[in-house]
Write a structure and sequence with these properties.
The chain is α+β, with helices and mostly antiparallel strands. It folds into two domains: 171 residues, no CATH class; 125 residues, Cyclophilin-like (Cyclophilin). The chain has five helices and 20 strands. The strands form four sheets. It has a seven-stranded mixed barrel. A six-stranded antiparallel β-sheet has the order 7-6-9-4-1-11, with no helix packed on it.
Length: 320
């Protein structure tokens, strides 16, 4: 059947690769914040890389499995246990009906992912399983998960032989160094800022504030100077766009960002570094480093090749 939740952190949701094609109608993309950890969890469990999984922020989930399953935890270390015994991160783990899962606060990182072989039995909304809390669509009834929810699995009989789970593991990424370095491509409205403002942006250290969330990562630090204010005619907002509001404090637009906005965007964080942002906690510090579009493209192609190799190493499985 699935898993009956007995404890849930305040920001646990179902996410997949995101809701593409509906921005013109005002629907945010949503999707996993850390695509690297999310895709890896699915590979390890035997899924397509974009199958729906549970995203947990700072605090994990606990529950009882009501059927056999193959699971994988990646991302932040929330100390997952089965029947009181620790289970490893970044490895496929077979669980049995009646097994009890427990996980807690993140020891390092911010967001953890739980993938289940076959994914969850849910209905797509506008082509995606991702939870959009603002619009109350997708995921589990369009809301965060909570205690006493029962999540059903698609797979009744998972492929869970000892050989299968023994071979499905990969290296745990090293802990993120602080301050983190986020690579950005300047623009599209960097001309709204003074030369001193751009130097401030690229040479200052910023910290995540407590009101950062899946919509925007709000920073504190040195104010970025604009020429004549940073208001613009609203235009589209890509993932990773760095807006500068009237306060001069950068805001990095994340998975649940609004579709359009009226603040100038001094730069855009490259897609490969968005998982870095996803794993930073309030109070963690960061710096920005400018790269050219060609450099960003080369970095992306290298990451694409790495994830392609991981997919080939852990092919999708067919289970009933």
């Amino acid at each position: 059947m699935g898993i009956f939740l007995t404890a849930v952190g305040p920001a646990a949701t179902i996410q997949d690769a995101g809701r593409a094609g509906y921005a013109a109608f005002g629907f945010q993309t949503s999707g996993a914040m850390d695509k690297r950890a999310f895709n890896t969890a699915n590979f390890l469990a035997g899924n397509d890389k974009d199958e729906a999984a549970i995203e947990m922020t700072l605090l994990g989930i606990s529950g009882e499995f009501t059927s056999d399953a193959v699971i994988a935890f990646t991302g932040a270390d929330v100390s997952p246990e089965i029947n009181g015994a620790p289970i490893p991160l970044y490895r496929a783990v077979a669980v049995k009906k009646g097994d009890v899962l427990k996980s807690g606060f993140a020891k390092n990182g911010c967001r953890a992912y739980l993938a289940v072989q076959g994914g969850f039995y849910l209905k797509k909304a506008l082509g995606s399983y991702s939870t959009n809390i603002k619009c109350k669509i997708g995921g589990y009834m369009g809301r965060p998960l909570k205690k006493e929810d029962l999540l059903y699995f698609n797979t009744v009989t998972p492929l869970a032989s000892a050989g299968f789970t023994a071979e499905r593991y990969t290296e745990i990424p090293p802990a993120q160094t602080i301050p983190a370095v986020l690579r950005v491509v300047l623009g599209p409205q960097d001309d709204y800022f003074t030369e001193n403002g751009i130097k401030t942006f690229l040479n200052s250290e910023y910290a995540l504030t407590n009101d950062s969330d899946r919509m925007g990562i709000k920073l504190s630090g040195a104010a970025v100077e604009s020429k004549n204010g940073a208001d613009i005619i609203s235009d589209g907002i890509p993932l990773g766009a760095v807006q500068i509001p009237s306060s001069g404090m950068p805001v990095i637009m994340a998975a649940d960002r609004q579709t359009v906005g009226g603040y100038a965007k001094i730069a855009t964080v490259i897609s490969v570094d968005m998982p870095v942002i996803a794993q930073l906690k309030p109070g963690d510090s960061m710096r920005f480093s400018a790269v050219t579009p060609d450099e960003a493209r080369r970095i992306y192609l290298s990451e694409y090749a790495r994830m392609r190799d991981l997919k080939e190493r852990f092919p999708e499985v067919n289970a009933s």
